[in-house]
Amino acid sequence: MGLMKVFSGSEVLALALKEKIEAAGVDTIIKDNIQSARLAGFGSSGSAVELFIQETDFAKANPVIEEFRLNI
Q1: Do residues 28 and 52 lie in contact, with contact meaning Cβ atoms separated by under 8 Å?
Q2: For residue 50, how many other CB atoms are within 10 A of its CB?
Q3: Of 21, 48, 60, 62, most Cβ neighbours within 10 A?
Q4: What is the CA radius of gyration of the chain?
């Protein structure tokens, strides 16, 4: 059991999905690669923000994730 990445992209979209997943009762973890790169003194390439959930919460979060993806 571990973490599963469910989204990778802009901070705005990641925060919107985070809110929807947490409203369904699932805890999330956000990794902000832009902030991490800036603090380390270099730029970031690729996806800015990644959103993770526990693998055990996937069944509960998946309908929320799928609906979100259909609407972006």
Answers
A1: yes
A2: 18
A3: 21
A4: 13
Does the reported pTM lie above 0.90? no
pLDDT above 90: percentage of residues in the chain? 71
Q: Comparing C-alpha atoms, which of 27, 41, 32 is closest to residue 12?
A: 32
**Any residues with CB less than 8 A from the CB of 71 and at least 6 apart, and which?**
none
Q: What is the 3-state secondary structure (H, E, C) of the chain?
A: CCEEEEEEECHHHHHHHHHHHHHCCCCCEEEEHHHHHHHHCCCCCCCCEEEEEEHHHHHHHHHHHHHHHHCC
Q: Tell me which residue has tokens 């790169």.
A: 37
